[in-house]
Amino acid sequence: MHNHRTILINLAKFAIPVGIIAYLLYRITPEQWQALTENPKNYPLLISALLIAVCAISISFVRWCMLVRCQGIEFTMLEAFRLGSICFLLNFVSAGSVGGDLFKAIFLAQRRPGKRIAAVASVLVDRGVGLYGVVLLAAGAFLVYRVDPNSDAYDNMNRIKAGTAVVALTGTTVLMFLVFGGAMVDRLIRWGSRLPVVGGLVLKIGPPLRMFHHHPIAFGASIVMSLIVHSMLVLSIYLIARALYPSVPTLGEHFVIVPIGMIASALPIAPAGLGVFEGMIEWLYHAIPAVPTNASGTVVALVFEIVKLVLAVIGIVFYWTAGAEVRQSLEKAEHVGEGVETGESDEG
Length: 348
What we know:
mainly alpha
C-alpha cells in the first residue's frame, strides 16, 4: 500500500502541472493563436530575455549565499549555485513534497548539525526577502501608476493597490523592528520564550532571526538584490512580449503587471505558481494598459515558463553531477516530503 501510495503521489506531481498547462492552452482563443502565428518573432529579443532571466536567478543565488553566511554557516558561492539550481528544478517540478526550500534547509542542517535552526532561518529569511522585494516593486510601481476611473477593473485595482501598500508597510515595519530594534526586541524574545506552548519555538527561532541585527549592511544589500532580481524578471517578460507581439503594454505598465502576478503566484495553490501567474497576467494585460493591446498575457506568461524550464535544465546537470552529500539531502527531503503528504511523521 505504501508503494502504491508513493507511486500515485509521484504521478500527481507531474500530472497536475501538465493538466494546468493543458487547461491554459485550451483557454487561448483562436484569435489569439492566429495573432501569435501571424506575427513575426524577434528571436534575438527572446534570447536576451533568457540571458536576463539567467542573470536574475544567479543574483538570487548570491543573495542566499550571503544570508547563509550571516548565520555563521560555512558556505561557498559554488555550493550556492549548485544547490540553488537544484532547488529551482525541484520548485518547478514538485507539487509540494520536495520543494526547494525543504531541500535547502535539510542540506544546511546536515552540513552544520549545531546550526539547524539557523539553517532553517536563513532559508525562511531568503524566501521572505524575495517576497518583500516583489511587494516593494509593486508598491513603487503603484506610486506612479494611476488607475483609470473609467476602467472596468477600477475597483479591483484599487483594492490590489491598497492591499499591496498594507503588506509593504507591514513588512517594512517588521523587518526594521527585527534588524534595528535593539535591546527591546531581545527582551521580547526572552519574554516570549517563557510563554506556554510557543515558548520553546520562540527561544529557538528568535536568536537566528535576530542574527541579522549584527549584519544590517548585508541584510540591506539582500533587499536591494531582491529588487534587482525582480526588476530583471520584469524586463525579461517585457522582452518576451515584444518578441511575440507588435503592440504590448509598456515597460512601465509591466512593472505593475508582473509584480502583482508574482505575488499571486507565491500563494501555495499550484506547483511553481502554474496557472495562477498566467491567469493574473492575462487579466492585467486587459486591465492595466492605457492603450488596448491584442497581446495575450497567457501566451507571454507560458513562454516565460518555457524560459524557466530552460533554466531548470541547469539544475538537472547539477543534479546528475551531485556528490554524495547532496544526494543524501535529496533523499532525506524526499522522505520528509512523503511523510508530510501521507500524514506520517518521522520521529527520528
